[in-house]
Write a structure and sequence with these properties.
Elements: E1 4-6, E2 13-16, E3 27-30, H1 33-41, H2 48-65, H3 83-98, H4 106-127, H5 139-176, E4 194-198, H6 215-223, E5 227-232, H7 239-250, E6 254-258, H8 263-268, E7 274-277, E8 281-283, E9 288-291, H9 294-304, E10 308-311, E11 317-318, H10 335-338, E12 358-361, E13 368-371, E14 374-376
Parallel strand pairs: 4-5, 4-7, 5-6, 7-10, 8-11, 10-13
Antiparallel strand pairs: 1-2, 2-3, 8-9, 9-12, 13-14
The structure holds 5-S-methyl-1-O-phosphono-5-thio-D-ribulose.
Residues 43, 46-49, 104, 200, 202, 206-207, 211-212, 239, 278-280, 290-291, 357 line the site of 5-S-methyl-1-O-phosphono-5-thio-D-ribulose.
């Protein structure tokens, strides 16, 4: 299912509104910086890689709109806008998009990458002028550089997800001594399936194509490797119930929905051979921020001796954060706990709430971090 794309005209972004799933599959078009910012903030588009891809396309759409931009004191280029004005305007819009959600590194990474692509074009034009003066690449060329880079980001994400899925699938097959399709005997047993527990949603909706944490499962389904997935519902915004359960059921994977506080019971029964989770930001020492509740799952996995894997593209690694303590954690409105998804509020009116959207899993609890580059084991040093 296509979750994010640039519109035909190139001046807006079209997304599948994830906040309405699974009840409604509705596409919405976003044109203004405010609408784009709101779409990330309200989780209409969500998942670290997806908000990076979205931010890149949002920048491409906003750059395209600048073809019609009339600056107060324009000069030089065909549209009347100088390269410097373009770059200034676009970095202000980029900063605004980056501020929509603080924890995932991907939007900032994507915005900086498309701006860099435009800057390179600008310098190329200047280099071509022997006097290095007053030469503009022009808005059309800069906007095209942003657009090209945005497409490249999405294409790379597809390839990265596929590679992560391959590495994750090989890892888990080796772990359990399980087999690929061609090795199965006729008499396939339930016990041949690999039990996976996952938290939140790190599937195709949160990325492109395979997803990260769900990648090995979806690739395994194609290759005849049997998985049995336990999806934590993931309070308070229920990404597990609404999105992971929906994606896996659609793909024909055996999926069982559980409440977050049931993970221990499921592990104790021996139903889970590995935990797969995604990530929003990985610090240089391997500490990983992911959806609130992930660190609790990691602690349980350690208790029961179950391997705990973090899967994500290498763009999620942020060497600027030495440890998890440097990762900013988003706090959201308490109404998400008090009343969202209930017919009427469930908690006493005015009750105080603490609603962090993410937590940090210490690297000691992580068996391996799987990126498109391979399987990294401790000690981590990125
Ligand atoms: O608040 P969300 O739904 O954006 O949180 C998403 C997660 O925590 C995912 O696990 C993470 O972004 C990885 S998505 C491949």
């Amino acid at each position: 299912m296509e979750n994010i794309r640039l519109s035909e005209s190139g001046s807006s972004v079209i997304i599948l509104d994830q906040s309405l799933l699974p009840a409604e599959e509705k596409y919405i078009e976003l044109k203004t910086p405010e609408e784009m910012h709101e779409a990330i903030e309200k989780l209409r588009v969500r998942g670290a890689p997806a908000i990076g891809i979205f931010a890149a396309y949002a920048m491409a759409a906003l750059a395209h709109q600048m073809l019609k931009y009339k600056p107060i004191s324009g000069c030089c280029s065909a549209s009347g806008t100088s390269d410097d004005v373009f770059m200034q305007e676009m970095s202000v819009k980029g900063d605004y998009l980056k501020a929509s959600r603080p924890t995932a590194v991907n939007p900032a990474w994507a915005v900086d990458r498309v701006l860099h692509a435009a800057r390179v074009e600008m310098y190329k034009a200047r280099q071509a002028d022997p006097n290095r003066m007053n030469v503009n690449a022009g808005v059309a060329r800069l906007a095209e550089a942003v657009r090209r880079e945005a497409f490249a980001i999405q294409e790379e994400d597809k390839a990265m997800c596929r590679a992560i899925a391959e590495h994750g699938l090989n890892e888990v097959i080796q772990l359990g001594g399980k087999k690929r399709k061609e090795e199965y005997k006729e008499d396939y047993q339930e016990s041949d399936s690999i039990g996976i527990l996952t938290h939140c949603n790190a599937g195709p909706l949160a990325t492109s194509e395979y997803g990260t944490a769900l990648g090995p499962v979806l690739l395994g389904a194609e290759e005849g490797v049997k998985f049995r997935v336990f999806a934590d519902e993931t309070r308070p915004l229920l990404q597990g119930a609404r999105l992971t359960a929906y994606e896996l059921q659609k793909a024909g994977v055996d999926v069982t929905l559980i409440c977050d506080n049931m993970a221990s019971s499921v592990m104790k029964r021996g139903w889970v051979q590995a935990v797969f989770v995604g990530c929003d930001r990985i610090a240089a020492n391997g500490d990983t921020a992911n959806k609130i509740g992930t660190s609790g799952v990691a602690i349980l996995a350690k208790h029961y001796g179950i391997p705990f894997y973090v899967l994500g593209p290498s763009s999620t690694i942020d060497p600027a954060c030495a440890t998890g303590a440097d990762i900013p954690i988003e706090e959201r409105d308490g109404d998400e706990i008090r009343e969202k998804f209930y017919a009427k509020p469930v908690a006493p009116e005015g009750i105080k709430c603490f609603n962090p959207a993410f937590d940090v899993t210490e690297h000691e609890l992580i068996t391996a971090i799987i990126t498109e580059k391979g399987v990294f084991r401790p000690p981590y040093s990125f």
